[in-house]
Amino acid sequence: PESPLPPPYSFATYTVPADRTLSPLQGGNQIITRLVGSHPLWGHHLWNTARVLTDYLLEHSSLVKGKKILELGAGAALPSLVAALKGANQVTITDYPDQELLDNMQWNVDTNVPLDIRPQTHVKGFLWGADPTPLMNGPEDRYDLLILSDLVFNHSQHKALISSVNSLLSLDLPSNGEMTPCVLIFITHHRPHLADADMAFLPALAESGDGWGYEQVVTEWTGVMFDEDPGDEKLRGTVKGFRAWRRRKEA
């Protein structure tokens, strides 16, 4: 028998909050993202967590302007698109090396990022914990900001994800009030009974490498993604955002 047709693409719109701006390079106040029709890695949704993280980038544009940025597990890549539009020097968008996902992310880049800044925006496949060399031009060519949006529910991959964070973020330390280099880790507890396992990512990161600090920067109610899911609606519908940074070595 003939194979069934793949599910059709869907589209999701992100509207810039009224008190913020995108870029004179991008007309209007909306970004249209295309989503794969269905995918075992959940790339067929624009998650509330990504919307809240994008709002945060718009509010704190100094995190992205003139910086090198990498997103892990990007899906529709909304935060990365906004980072490119807000003046990032380079944006690298990564997800599992599945061609359908990568092609869809490239479509979102081609549709939303103007031609004159598109060469600074790259789409690449990457497995967490793998050799990061293909994402860098050299061992010192690391990133100022890493974006982790709704990734830590994948508990079996915490160790690999932490390995990649340690390998990819700049070795410089924030100083003089600067917020970068840093990692943005935004979380929604879609399975409330596993919330503790989600949160275990942060102390595990803090204890890795030479040590990390972190702070919560966002708590925002968005409503639940799926009404039929079990568990506490307050947890399932709240996005929590954290900023993490390397700590100075003790003398």
Automatic annotation (TrEMBL):
CDD domains: AdoMet_MTases. Gene3D superfamilies: Vaccinia Virus protein VP39. It holds the Pfam family Methyltransf_16. InterPro entries: EFM7 (IPR025784), Methyltransf_16 (IPR019410), SAM-dependent_MTases_sf (IPR029063). One of its GO terms (molecular function) is S-adenosylmethionine-dependent methyltransferase activity. GO terms for cellular component: cytoplasm. Transmembrane segments: none annotated. It comes from the Eukaryota. GO terms for biological process: methylation. Coiled coil: none annotated. This is Putative nicotinamide N-methyltransferase. The lineage of its organism: Eukaryota, Fungi, Dikarya, Basidiomycota, Agaricomycotina.
